[in-house]
Automatic annotation (TrEMBL):
Residues 1-25 form the signal peptide. Its EC number is 3.1.2.22. Pfam families: Palm_thioest (PF02089). InterPro entries: AB_hydrolase_fold, Palm_thioest. One of its GO terms (molecular function) is palmitoyl-(protein) hydrolase activity. It comes from Anopheles atroparvus. GO terms for biological process: receptor-mediated endocytosis. This is Palmitoyl-protein thioesterase 1. GO terms for cellular component: lysosome. It catalyses: S-hexadecanoyl-L-cysteinyl-[protein] + H2O = L-cysteinyl-[protein] + hexadecanoate + H(+).
Length: 300
C-alpha cells in the first residue's frame, strides 16, 4: 500500500507540473553555439539570431560564450580544443537554473559538431532536439573561403592541415585539425583525430555516446546546397567521401558509421528521429521566413 501511495503522489506531481507549464505557456529554452570566426553575441550574427528567437518564440535563449570576453570567444573557434570547450559549456549549462528541464540545441557550422558532442557527453541538462546548420559531422577536407580570415591566412591553415593535421602539435593547437578528415589516410585519421574520430565512435564504440545521443527527440541536419566553405557538402548531412579517394561521396546511410551502427544512428533513423533539411543558400545564408517555416516546428 505504501508503494502504491508513493507512486500515486509521484504521478500526481508530474501531472501538476505539466499542467502548470501548459497554463503558463512556458517555452523550451534554446542554446546556440556559434561557428568558426564568430562569437556568441555579434548583433549581425548570433546576437541577432538570439533576439529573433526570443521575440518569435518567447523562450529563454542562451548563446554560448567561450571564455570571459568577446575576444576570447572569437579565438576559441581556432585555438581552444573542442573537448575543452564541451567541458566548459557543459559546466555552464548545468549551473543555469533556467535550463533545469532541458533545452533545444542549435549549432552553427563547426558549432554543429560541438553541439552534438555536448549531447553525447553532457546528458544533464537534457537536450531535447538538436539542430545543426552547416555542421561538419564527418569532418572536412579543405578550408575554402574560410570566414573572417584573409585568403593568405586561409591558405596557410590549409597547408598546415594538409601536411601536419595529425601531429600532436596541430591537434592541440588548431581546432580545425581536430575534425580534419583525410579520406586518403583513413587509419591515420582514426588513430590521430583527438575529437571527431572519438565522438563518431570510429576507434572504439563508446556506448555512453550512443545512449545519450538516442535520448534526442529529433536530430535535424541542415545542408546548404550552394555552400562554398564546407568540403565535402555531404558532411552537413553526415555523409562523406568514399574511403580512399576525395571525388565521390556517399550518404550517411551508406557510410560505415551507419551500416555498422557505431553511433546508434541506424536505430534513430528507424524511429524517424533523423531529419534532413535543405537550404538553397551559401554557408549559413538563410532568411527569417525560411527559419520559421523549417526549424520552428523543432523548437516548440
Amino acid at each position: 500500500m505504501l508503494r502504491i501511495n508513493v507512486l500515486l503522489k509521484f504521478c500526481a506531481a508530474i501531472l501538476i507540473y505539466n499542467f502548470r507549464n501548459s497554463v503558463s505557456g512556458e517555452k523550451m529554452p534554446v542554446v546556440l553555439w556559434h561557428g568558426m570566426g564568430d562569437t556568441c553575441c555579434f548583433p549581425f550574427s548570433l546576437g541577432g539570431v538570439k533576439k529573433f528567437l526570443e521575440a518569435e518564440l518567447g523562450a529563454y535563449v542562451k548563446s554560448v560564450e567561450i571564455g570571459n570576453s568577446i575576444v576570447e570567444d572569437f579565438k576559441s573557434g581556432y585555438l581552444i580544443h573542442p573537448n575543452q570547450q564541451v567541458e566548459m559549456v557543459c559546466a555552464t549549462l548545468k549551473n543555469d537554473s533556467r535550463l533545469t528541464n532541458g533545452y533545444n540545441g542549435i549549432g552553427f557550422s563547426q558549432g554543429g559538431q560541438f553541439m552534438r558532442a555536448l549531447a553525447q557527453k553532457c546528458p544533464t541538462p537534457r537536450m531535447h532536439n538538436l539542430i545543426t546548420l552547416g555542421g561538419q559531422h564527418q569532418g572536412v577536407f579543405g578550408l575554402p573561403n574560410c570566414p573572417s580570415l584573409s585568403s593568405k591566412t586561409c591558405e596557410g591553415f590549409r597547408r598546415l592541415l594538409n601536411y601536419a593535421a595529425y601531429t600532436d602539435l596541430m591537434q592541440n593547437f588548431l581546432v580545425q585539425a581536430t575534425y580534419w578528415h583525410d579520406p586518403l589516410n583513413e587509419e591515420t585519421y582514426k588513430n590521430s583525430s583527438t575529437f571527431l574520430a572519438d565522438i563518431n565512435n570510429e576507434r572504439y564504440v563508446n556506448k555512453t555516446y550512443i545512449d545519450n545521443l538516442q535520448k534526442l527527440n529529433k536530430f535535424v541536419m541542415v545542408r546548404f546546397n550552394k555552400d562554398s566553405i564546407v568540403q565535402p557538402l555531404d558532411s552537413q548531412w553526415f555523409g562523406y567521401y568514399k574511403p580512399g579517394q576525395d571525388k565521390e561521396t556517399e550518404s550517411l546511410r551508406d557510410s560505415d558509421i551507419f551500416v555498422k551502427d557505431r553511433l546508434g544512428l541506424k536505430d534513430m533513423d528507424k524511429q524517424d528521429k533523423i531529419v534532413f533539411i535543405e537550404c538553397e543558400g551559401n554557408h549559413l545564408q538563410f532568411t527569417k521566413e525560411w527559419f520559421r517555416r523549417h526549424l520552428f516546428p523543432y523548437l516548440q
